[in-house]
Amino acid sequence: MTRLVVISNRVSIPESGKPQAGGLAVAITGALNEYGGLWFGWGGKVSQSSTSRPTTVQHDNITYATLPLSKEDYDDYYLGFSNEVVWPVFHFNLGAMDFRLNYAKAYQRVNERFASSLSTLLEGGELIWVHDYHLLPLGKALRGQGVSDPIGFFLHIPFPSYDLLRALPGYRELLDDLLHYNLLGFQTDNDLHAFRQAVIETFDAVVFGDTIECNGKQVRTGVYPVGIDVDELAGEAERSCANEQARQLKQDLGERDLIIGADRLDYSKGLVQRFNAFEALLTHFKHRRQRTMFMQIASPSRSAIPEYDELRRQLEEMAGHINGTYADLDWVPVHYLNKTYPREALIGLFRSARVGLVTPLRDGMNLVCKEFVAAQDPDDPGVLVLSELAGAAHELSGALLVNPYDVHAIASAIEQALNMPLDERRERYQQMIGMLRRNSLFEWRRRFMEHLSQQQADAQSSA
Ligand code: GDG
């Protein structure tokens, strides 16, 4: 079988002892477990100086090869260009963009270093799969190292509309970088459409079927919605009912309804609007007081970036304000937990909740909402309230879809969810679980790998 080489900004080596928060890690481990091969990227360490010599470890059939980042690269490539330029623009948040020339230079430099380091580990005849927005230029840099195997790229986050993209200095180069891949994958039709539009407007690209022809190159494109392992999740959720923590929670909740949110602490996840929506529920639907508890898990993320730290403070204040206004001797309405919890605990909470509240302002896909659905008891399922601006909204029509900026619409949807009759809850659950099974994590990687292999076969037959 052809070896698979995966490259992502962060390599998640098993047994590092910490729970993984981040859809990417969960998804990639699955692909590599099946094919075997190499996972290359940053190992998570910040060192004094930068090096191109990777450290490798082997676990089962996967080799993990990692590089450290120097403090400067961490600040400028990772926090800077990736997370203060590309991330906000691609999430339609121009106000949070902080473009600096040294960020752009570091982004290019680290991508070049990744390429030269990785090329020493390649054997030839492999399938190469690059992940996400930190590595847009990697394909072109690998070509510069003489790599001729097919290289695919998958974008986990949204692709912005052309007009937004134009606000990013150097966007033409980034678009051109993407044209050096053989296969480009997006989460939704919207993202693919936005990319096509951008290359048409910028380079007069020509689109025929799945292929884009541009600047003398041909790139195949496709839509591959990331999914979850439904059976694994459902099994874990069922087992969670038996554990001590779940029993304790059930006892603490008593007759109260639990509303659950769980996200990385990120401004794209719509947490401020979500807290306001919960307050609006307590204000406008007074009968929900005493009877409802909102638990928000906000897993710490990128806290060195000012916007993230500011958001953490703002949410602490909002939770304090809501609790200060509404709490009683025997009831605290908001439980705001700024921690990363073990996966089993999280899934147990999903299972216990009546409402899953997932309201990002923009999200490439969003796996939390899919995990929430898969964790439900099929006989007595909870209800998903989902942002129509999450990629997952294209698949989960059984959710109550809301505009994440419309605080009152979210409050009304929560009320509707809490009043929903069992028959309707089951019907909606069936629609969603069926879709999750069809578009599973396995299907995602199978289709991407199949299309990438076709690129290899096409190259061999035309050689
Ligand atoms: C990017 C895109 C796309 C959350 N809190 C804890 C915890 N989590 C886990 C969830 C879920 C994952 O983290 C988050 O995945 P999302 O998909 O919701 O969001 P991003 O991290 O922004 O992921 C996104 C994804 O890539 C995949 O393509 O869907 O749109 O932005 O699995 O369960 N896990 C644990 N403790 C927590 O406290 N263990």
From TrEMBL:
Pfam family, one: Glyco_transf_20
InterPro entries per UniProt: Glyco_trans_20 (IPR001830)
Protein family according to the UniProt entry: Belongs to the glycosyltransferase 20 family.
PANTHER family from the UniProt entry: BCDNA.GH08860, TREHALOSE-6-PHOSPHATE SYNTHASE
Protein name as catalogued: Alpha,alpha-trehalose-phosphate synthase (UDP-forming)
Phylogenetic classification of the source organism: Bacteria, Pseudomonadati, Pseudomonadota, Gammaproteobacteria, Oceanospirillales
